[in-house]
Amino acid sequence: MSEQPMNDSYYVAPVEAPASRRPPVTATGLIGWLKENLFSSIFDTIVTLVTIALVALFLWRFLGWAMLEAQWEVAFLNLRELSVGQQFPRDEIWRITLIAQIIVFLSLLSVGVWGRLTRSVAIVILTIIAFAFIVPFASRTVPEPPIYTFVAENYSVRQVNFIAQEGQEITFTLAPLTSPEEYALADIDGYIEDDNQQANTSFDAFNTVSRDIDRELRDPAEFDLNVSLQVWNIDGLVIEESAYSSGSTDDIVLEFTAPYSGWFTYTAVFDEENPGTIGSAWVIADNIDVYRSTTGAQLERVEEYGEAPPLDCPGCGTATNRTDMRFQGTRTVAQWFSLQLTPFLLETRSMFILMVIVGAVAYAIGKLTTMVGLAETPALKATERLLLIFSALWIVGWLGVQVANAANPTPAMDTLRLFIMASFVVTLFIYAVLQFSKGSPQASSQAVTLMWVLSFPVVITLLTGFTNVQPDAPLPPIQTGLLGGMLLTLLLSAVAIIASFPIGMMLAIGRQSELPVVSLLCTVFIEVLRGVPLITLLFMGRLILPFFGFGLGDVDLVIRIMVVLTLFTSAYLAEVIRGGLQIVPRGQLEASGALGLNGFWTTVLIVLPQALRAVIPAIMGQAVSLFKDTSLVYIVSLFEILGTMNQILGDSQTGYIAFPREGYLFVGIVYFVFSYIMADVSRRIERTGSGAVRRDTI
Amino acid sequence: MAVAEDMGGSRPPPKQRRRIQLTTPGIPWYRDILVIRILMQVAFVILFVGGLGIAFLSLAGNLQESNLSLDFNIYRAPFTVAISEGPSVTNNWIWLNGDYDTAIQIVYTGIIVAILGWVGYSSYQQNKRDELPITPVLIGLLTIIFVFIAPPNEVPQILRDHFFGGSMLRAFFTGIANTIKVVVTSLIACTILGILVGIGLLSGNFLVRGVSKVFVEIFRNTPLLIQLLFIYRTMTVLLPFPRQSICQTDGCTGNNLIAMNARGLWIVNPQSTDTTVIFFVAIVIAIAVAWFVRRSRFKLQEETGTPPKIVRYTLPVLIIIPLIGWIIASVLNGGSVFINDYPILPESGPNIVGGYQITTAFFALFVGLTLYTAAFIAEIVRAGIQAVPTGQIEAARSQGLNGSQVLNLVVLPQALRLIIPPLGNQYVNLGKNSSLAIAVTYFDTYRIAQLANNESGQAVPFFVGLMAIYLVLSVTLSYLTNIVNSATKVKTR
User: Fold this and answer.
1) Does A534 touch chain B (CB under 8 A)?
2) How far, in Å, CA of A26 to CA of A29, rounded?
3) ipTM of this predicted structure
4) pTM
5) What are B311-324's pLDDT values in tens digits?
6) Residue B150: beta bridge partners?
């Protein structure tokens, strides 16, 4: 550095930069962020405070309801129905599980080969797994709420099965209701409900009595029942019994210590000779485990303690085998965790973890194939060719068996068909694995595509099954009418979006056609379908299509609705694709014409690849919209997930009719999760630039 | 000048009338592309019409076998389900009463216009020509000729016997009125809410932005049907039975301004008296005067540069003149301008009487449609505003414009042009989505059609009616948006 000139008339920059000063505290860190984002002006401060107040109020009310009052049983006790429908045969559910695993496997494999999993997704999955283990573990420390059963004159005394561990001490109390205040407590702290509408009768009886008291038709202080408490063992013998109440309004307490681990039954019995004339009471059982009535919990119970003992109620008409004991009424937050969240997590946990494992394995394979690989040898090449020839032979064999089976079905054909199907899949699978082991991205990519294509016949076969001669042959057919729940929702969406793609593409090209007739007809088709609501078309599919003849009346409703949804989507898709066709510059068409390509090849080789790539996000948006629209099929009485929920809610036997909010909210959350993920994927694709042009075709 | 001359000089050559040639000379006709094209199209038409014809004949035959008819006489059959909501279409309408000829023409024309108009209109939109839309104009002319000029006697007998005088038709009109009611109300509400949320999405306030984002994501990503069911069932679960209605007076027996129970919401319904018209005239005068004041203030601003201060000058006018009208009207009528029809819960009786009832079904549908469509509109508004370059906003700021001026004078005029076309799509969607009223038992067109079908079992005529009605609705909404669009478009010439 040279010597600085000392001249007053110039400003000379100092050699060293001035010491950096920290920005004021109010502009950095948390305070700075708050100031900038929440309190930047007086108006802003007011808005912030009002928003905080409103959000807090909403969350307080909503969470309070969701955790303390809502009965989420309507969702988690019916998970099977909601996922596959009420009529789906139980023995065949494994097929649906298998299909789900196949799709998870292939999806994650594709992600492994073509892209990468973002860290946030992994964190979310790990959090859910941690949650699924911690919550059930922690909720064991929450004491079970007491179980209430109602006793009144002219009302059958309730029997309840329960499980106790050896040495467990249980207190039963018969508490007569002697003051109007006790009846005024409409929100009882808990009562039981079982399979057979007993809770409704119990509550009807309670309501009748309390209404009589309201109208001063009876005095609650009168209590004249002659009741005693009994505990039976699994053989139906009374092993513990209290004294009769003999008209006294004092509580009767029965202390019971379980002599063995297993099933017991408790009840309150009237004295046969002198049952008493008036009064009502609670039987309160404390320190009993509340049964989980989820399928998994029931199986677990049966495995450990055997089947529940049959109830032979002395003097009451309906002796029911209660396998189900639910806690209802208001509760604490701890009880929400133990009674509502835990059963849900226990029910879904194993399936979820299986999916995570399958997905992780697939992802690892996908990642590995792009990194390491075998050298290509002549032997490898020969094996590949051999496998391809084999699979071609399998197809010929398959067709032969189909023809033979159509002519003369025999039991041997059933097995043979299954065998050919399986070995065809195995052959191509080995081929795909060989492709993977090459380690080149192109080969892996082709193999993934091959496996997706391969999964199609497998999934369809698993879903529909074979018309077998033998009744107990594997993969019996499942009628499409039996499908329901989430399965039907996804099936309808998948079929409609896939099948509508070629139709939509043809319509889009047809509308752009130079031939006026073709253009006009395509336009009419597209615009009429876009101009009317979907449910009008569903109405047509349900009521009018059968009358067109051509055997359409015999076609199942599910198939007809699939066709309607496909046509509807294809009209929208056509408009989306047309948007893409318009972005291809005219110069390219002229250039391809100059190169000697005719109209067909210009469209296939030049226009479509660019057009389709440009509209990928819009197509995804269409898929989301279609996925949401499948909920409308419930109006034409197909039971997809919303229809199934409506069936469950409308079933007077189960008593879920009072909980529509919980039911619809649950279905809404399921729809939200799926749609949000699809929309998010679409946004990501858009951001990476795969979709070159964005058009707001809604 | 030089530029103008250049432009004048390079005028395109005058158009030559191209002679229509059906064949290319020198090529045998069977290999000529022009001929092949025409033949292909003819074959296409024959194939299409033939297919349609076969399907239609098959449909007609099958319907006849099932003892159902294809004819529209079914619209005359009585409709026996009680419709609890909507205007009652009375016999006062002449053309419902017996003047079949005109009525038939109107309805048949309506159907044809609906389909042709929709097609023509959308092909017009597709091409985005700035010329006069020829197809809609042609269709309009045809309609006028068909309805007003064609003598009624020339309507074929087969048409004259169909369609009118029946109660099912009247039920349909009630349904249409109900559909229009819910579409118009929620259209207004969802626009306002959507714009607010859309601005909220761009707010500098983190909380407001977050809440808007959550709102949009929730309502966009769940099916409307579930939202409707949830809202409707929540209301019926949470609100009390009619005998325990919520209102201001004790026990609801007094004059309530507002009352509420699970069946609906009742508000006071002011009935006009003999002198009410004076009050309304006063309001009209006030608006007219205010408009003149506003114009003169703007003129003054142009001439002298004085700030217009519109609010300060027009607000007094808008308050004082109606007030005078109110006072005159009440003095003339002895103290009251309106007679209030209050909702009252009678001592005995199932439900509240009097007042204007907003049924739970309508309210649920209105709220559901509004929230769902508002979520989409919010995203459109956000995208439109974000499309305005930030540099312009900064430039406007540095010119000294304040926040609302930047929004009103710089951002919105540009953003609106981008917002309005997709907004029109949303309005059409809203109109179509209103058919989900069936989930909340609101008597809209679709529900009436389904009830009519349940009664008669004749799906086809009702299906055709439904298609026509919804096509007309879509066309109307789309056309209205387009009018607004062309009004806000940049005028280039």
Assistant:
1) yes
2) 8
3) 0.82
4) 0.82
5) 888 888 889 998 99
6) none
